[in-house]
Amino acid sequence: MSEFTRNPVHLGGKEIAVDDTFKFSCSGCGNCCRWRNNKIAGNEIFLSEPDIIRISKLLNLPIVQVIEKYVKIDYDSDLNIYLCRLKIKSTGVCVFLRTGTCHIYEGRPRTCALYPLAREIQVYFDSRREHYAHYEDKYYICSDKEPQYKCGDAFQYTVGEWLVKNRVPIEDTDDREWFTKLISLSEKGKKLSADDPLHRNLFCELYLSNMNDKFDDRKGKRIDD
User: Fold this and answer.
1) What is the C-alpha separation between 109 and 139, in angstroms, rounded?
2) Which residue segment(s) compose the domain that 184 sits in?
């Protein structure tokens, strides 16, 4: 099941607004980057195109190279499209955890920057019965039922203070627009089987939209090949 179809409230999360408070602390131990497994739904670190662009700029690497080295691409059967997730080592450690420290901390994915919060993203239909994504002004606290680590004494924050602390814009326009595109392409993916080569086009439109490669929709190949 896609993480986008899982309701955090039903999984024990608490819905809170931007001005509401929560308690959390981080000792920088890096344990939240360990004990992960991409085979377990909800345990992986999802990546948007803006996430990958931020990582690319921080590492000064081409986007394609970032995807090849650090990303796992999986077919999401709920959204009918291929999505990117961070690679997890066989030891269950995030590929970017180096000597107990996040190697891309300043450009880390929104999933990591928001933790222990997660955005509430809802999908609606417009008058033509097409999907579009919409950010609510609410967030979820993601609570681990059986935490494998402790982070010491908790400090109190409002959601807004937590976003400022972690340099996450409240509007986050790039991410908002990307999720809208994700839902739109998901609709196109419904017409394709999981092994249809045209999924390559959808993936490129979703994750490589800032590149100048053009693809032939009929053959799934670059026009200039």
Assistant:
1) 17
2) 3-205
